[in-house]
Specification:
By secondary structure, the protein is mostly beta strands. The protein has four helices and 34 strands. The strands form eight sheets. Strands 1, 24, 25, 26, 27, 28, 29, 30, 33 and 34 form a ten-stranded antiparallel beta sheet that branches. The protein has a four-stranded antiparallel beta sheet with strand order 3-4-5-6, with no helix packed on it. It has a four-stranded antiparallel beta sheet with strand order 7-8-9-10, with no helix packed on it.
Length: 549
Amino acid sequence: MKRIIVYLCLIALILGSCTNPNVEEKTKDHLVENEDYIDLTSKYDGEEFEYNESLWYMNDLKDVPLPDPHVYVENDTYYIVGTSDRDPNVVDCYVTKDFVNYELHKAIYDPVLYDGWEDKSQALIFAPEVYCIDGVYYMYYSAKDSTLVRKCSVVAADNPLGPYQPIVNDNVNGLDYPLLHNEEYFNRGLDATIFTDDDGKMYMYFTVTKATQHIVGVELISPYQADWSTYKELVIPGTVDSVSEEQFLEWELYRDNKVKIAEAPFMIKSNGKYYLTYSVNGAYNKYYNVCYAVSDSPLGNFEKPYQSNGFWSNLLLGYPGTNVKNSTVFNQWTGFASGTGHHCFFNMGDQVMVGYHAHQDRDGNGRYEKRYFAFDYLNFDENGVPFCNGPTNSVQPLPEDLSGYKNIAPFAQVKSENVTNAGAINDNYIVDCYNISGEAEKEVTLGNGYSFIELTFDQVYEIGGIAIYNSAFFEKILLEIEYIDFGNGNVVNYAQFAYDQYVDENKEFVFPNSAFTVEFLNTFEADHVVICVKSDGAAALNEIVVLGK
């Protein structure tokens, strides 16, 4: 107890008094574990964590066996469609309100019922996506026709769960032929996605196969008709843009693919720029990543950010690596994540999320991996450039729309002692790959001895939990937080890092996006928090998330 009193006196001298007279006093001088709070590290049994699913989530790859996911959101309900793992000749949909409980709706589209253009025995419907346009629900998908060639089309319904039916009217006949296919421009098409710009114009992006598999785009006249005169090639794997021929972005060209692959496009607009995101290397490859290219217009020219001799410069989500077999990076991520690709973006309230599939076998050793739905945060830097905090394989806070608590750290003023680059502690950016040049500069460096970081919030909040993200650098990680002090006796002593779960000593690898995670059973009010750490050498922290309401 004397040790804590000494720390509190020291931090008061360093940072000034943080006492808020409006916050209710408590008789305790610190919180009691398992009575007032849970250190989630103590809830790991060697195989999985026990945690409050209304406050936290973890991509344990168990609930939704659905490759190529797309999430449609309506009235606080999330509809997840994808390539059915149950019956690949129909479209299934998982419905959830909390991403804990899921209801499976089978065969919301079954082409056999309509005797349409799809092959009757092996339609193999891939990558459906659902959109509501002018009150009608459209499902875009690809399937094989009677010649077993994959083609894109769209069906419609009056509600998100269908049943979806072919579109037949005076202009089109979606029963007898695929509505979004044009033999003049391409033979094989898949992975259609839709983007509506601010001016109301609609665009479709999809994948075609020539010498390589690459991304193309076209403007739509209606939800089921394309203006093929606008057809344009946009993304070729390995090149810096769609007009270059040299393929040198090697992370898009891993060694075990016969055909170079760019597929599964998705579009997001930010700060006036168009970000065309896509997956490379193939769905069964452990290096199935999400990359991006950027343009000033919906149909390009799209360019990939790249610096000479740089690595992973346009990697948005996925397994970083190298074509040098058995390199450090090649080995470290094996067992952590595999096949994290074919994504979509969707909103949980005001927070943008990235949904994707991942191999349940995180080693990624086989071609026919079981693939499950996962999701993580998508954020944007000061220039509007998107970045993902993921893929994750650790306990993460749920967005406010589901938990009722928002991350109040980004709104806080930061003061510190014995700390370098303190402003990185609440910028929403979590370093997840120490192999990228310059990432060390985005962490908070701690000096020898005791270091202090104080966040002062913009108002008094009810506090539900805190996550303090460890360094991405193995040699800089911390095993313990000396104390977390919210004032008025709301002090957590010696929070622990889940070392056995999040660290691989043999590989000298710490799981990206892993944190000291504390949940408060008895919530309290606070307008600040002080974190104290002690290090005897090189040490760093990544980010702090404070859950308040």
